[in-house]
Amino acid sequence: MQTATIHRAWLTYTEELAMLGHGLPLWQPAPLDNYDKIKIGDVGYIRQGRFHLLFSASMPQGGRILGEDVPLDFVPFEPGPTAKDQPRGPGALHARYIKQIGAAFNISANATCIDAGTTFNFKTSSTKGAILMTKYQTFCEDAERWGRFEDYMRQHYQSWHDHANKLGHRVKLEDILFITGHDMTRDFDMVAFSSDSKEAGIKFSAGIPGVGSATTAAWGTWDSSISVSRNFGPQPRDPPGDLQLLTYNTHPMDSFPKYNQCVFLRGYRIKRRARIVPRVIRAAAGPHDLGSGHRSDKEDLQAEWNSSSSDSYSEILMDPDPPFVDPLTPFFDYIFDVNLPLCCLNRGEANS
Predict the structure, then answer these.
(1) What is d(CA 47, CA 45) in angstroms, rounded to the nearest whole number?
(2) Nearest-angstrom CA–CA distance, 345 and 270
(3) DSSP reduced 3-state for 257
(4) How far does the chain reach from its first CA to its final CA, in angstroms?
(5) Which strand (E) or helix (H) includes residue 159?
(6) Are 189 and 130 in contact (CB under 8 A)?
(7) Are 196 and 127 in contact (CB under 8 A)?
(8) How far is CA 256 from CA 34, 261, 322, in A?
(9) pTM (predicted TM-score)
(10) What is the secondary structure of 280-301 as a DSSP string?
């Protein structure tokens, strides 16, 4: 199999798996050095498919310093009880235009782990696509009391934005996420592709990590008739010493016993929205002036619009399937507060 360079693979992966309805897919599920796993109540942002933690709102202040480790107006947040779904079995999740051919060999319906020798065959009918493979089960958890998240974010979002940029993160207000749920597993192996061909075959074969593969951390191999971008893990981020290298090559998964690889997350963010009020309407418009009806036909608009912030409003707008603009947009419910609404990224609503 020929592996492509990462050509914004994180964006293709996010776009393609987003519509499965599990939440926001992460191209980089592994936690970073400043946190051991993503938790409900965390505040952060996504950049190139990776979650960057700003601070955890659900933890006591403890030794954290106001204005440095947490925002100046920080008060601990109590997320309340959570709901845990039945674990999702190991195997494949893939984009809508990819079909799995036949049943996977050597895997039962109640399996908790994919055994060596299991194979998955796929056929794609699109020029773009993505596949996520997990060897072990995936555990899903979500907050139950969303109102607490909405109220808390309304009170503090501006200080979160100020805090993030004071630390040099260079994020927009709309980038900040308040986490309400996540899907965790132990490992991952994923591919994303964008090619000129609409039809291609892709195969994943599970094996023993470090055996029969040039990549020691991989627990399987991919074969494809097109070039794909691949990411797998978890992997150590620092070069190992000689003794560590010997141990890692022999038992690579022994160093990663935790279910802390976040493959999907859900939460709230801010969405800018102001009331648009017609101010002057052209009275002489005839049938020949009506335009195509598309919002993009600016030259055909029959009114001048006033979007002053004084005309902003508060309401809840359910928007489960808006036009796709960026990787976050399709998941959000809009909860308006003054001219800055909150948006909720929820599981299962992208396809409702």
Answers:
(1) 7
(2) 11
(3) coil
(4) 36
(5) helix 146-166
(6) no
(7) yes
(8) 17, 10, 39
(9) 0.75
(10) EE-TT--GGGS--S-TT-GGG-
